[in-house]
Q: What sequence folds into this?
């Protein structure tokens, strides 16, 4: 499945470059795509992406060693503290940069929009060759994004979606809605297996940030996946959302929110968590309330800790859909380096997002993984 699916995504992504990829593109009489960048660099073809690169392990570099020696790429990261996901995003981005011979300048916005805007302006003033942006706010950073374009610096957006009006840029992430959809579908299957039809399933929805596209798309997908399963099997849905809150992608925030929710709603049946960081907060809250293993939880990220919980089968974690920061980090650097040299880069590049449950967890759980 993986070998057939990934090339399809790449083909789709490159077909979209006409809409929002870096620079403008043209097609010659042989059908080859080329790019004329906004700063009149020599036009170049798209970077070569082989099947071996697509199949590479998350921490295995792609491209050619020292291919872009001398380039400086700025990375405006929304936050680092308290998140192993963000830490792995940056860690593997640095590994890829070192492999390609690129200097990577990482600035941490510390979950502060004003600081991220200032960080972007800082990178522009350093005259970096490309900028990678993980936006704190999908619309709030747009004035700073305009400055990136005005400076004719190629832009790669990673992980969190940017408002489309910020184009042109290359977006490296997973397909957030589809990832959420798979997560919700897996939860519905687990509910059906446990109860069959039950007239009412009381749900807690833990989203990450208000009015953030990545957070919204995951939530929309999770609820759609759950409801679609029930509609297809029973012709109706039984989901009742009794509580909804945000936890800023952080386990401690999720723990506090979940504790408050359980005081008001001790009889919940399921939890939708926007990421494994949320699940890592939900588990101790459920344990303290003597509900661990009784409440079913679905998640997104496929972190080693959560995959182990799925394998153990005693905490109620039924699934986590892969959203690997290591893959995003290395491919963001790969495309940023190529864009800096005038190559065509895709409008969208999605990394694979398999749903991992009790049946296939052994295939994905690596006890030696750093993530």
A:
């Amino acid at each position: 499945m993986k070998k057939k699916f990934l090339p399809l995504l790449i083909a789709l992504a490159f077909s979209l470059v006409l809409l929002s990829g870096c620079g403008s593109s043209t097609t010659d009489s042989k059908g080859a795509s080329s790019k004329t960048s906004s700063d009149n660099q020599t036009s170049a073809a798209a970077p070569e992406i082989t099947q071996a690169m697509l199949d590479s392990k998350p921490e295995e570099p792609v491209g050619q060693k020292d291919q872009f020696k001398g380039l400086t790429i700025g990375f405006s990261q929304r936050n680092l503290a308290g998140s192993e996901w963000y830490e792995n995003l940056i860690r593997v981005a640095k590994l890829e940069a070192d492999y390609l011979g690129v200097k990577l300048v990482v600035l941490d916005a510390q979950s502060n929009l004003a600081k991220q805007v200032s960080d972007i302006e800082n990178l522009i003033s350093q005259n970096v060759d490309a900028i990678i942006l993980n936006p704190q706010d999908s619309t709030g950073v747009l004035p700073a994004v305009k400055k990136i374009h005005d400076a004719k610096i190629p832009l790669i957006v990673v992980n969190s979606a940017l408002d489309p009006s910020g184009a042109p840029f290359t977006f490296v992430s997973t397909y957030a809605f589809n990832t959420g959809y798979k997560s919700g579908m897996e939860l519905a299957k687990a509910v059906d297996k446990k109860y069959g039809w039950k007239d009412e399933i009381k749900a807690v929805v833990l989203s990450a940030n208000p009015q953030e596209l990545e957070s919204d798309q995951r939530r929309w997908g999770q609820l759609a996946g759950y409801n679609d399963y029930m509609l297809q099997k029973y012709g109706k849905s039984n989901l009742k959302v009794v509580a909804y809150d945000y936890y800023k992608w952080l386990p401690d925030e999720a723990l506090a929110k979940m504790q408050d929710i359980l005081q008001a709603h001790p009889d919940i049946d399921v939890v939708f968590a926007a990421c494994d960081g949320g699940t890592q907060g939900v588990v101790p809250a459920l344990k303290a309330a003597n509900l661990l293993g009784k409440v079913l939880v679905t998640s997104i990220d496929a972190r080693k800790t959560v995959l182990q919980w799925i394998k153990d089968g005693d905490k109620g974690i039924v699934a986590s859909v892969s959203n690997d920061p290591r893959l995003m980090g290395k491919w963001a650097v790969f495309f940023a380096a190529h864009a800096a040299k005038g190559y065509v880069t895709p409008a969208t590049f999605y990394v694979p997002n398999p749903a991992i449950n009790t049946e296939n967890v052994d295939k994905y759980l690596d006890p030696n993984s750093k993530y």
User: Anything to note?
Assistant: Residues 1-42 have pLDDT under 50 and may be disordered.
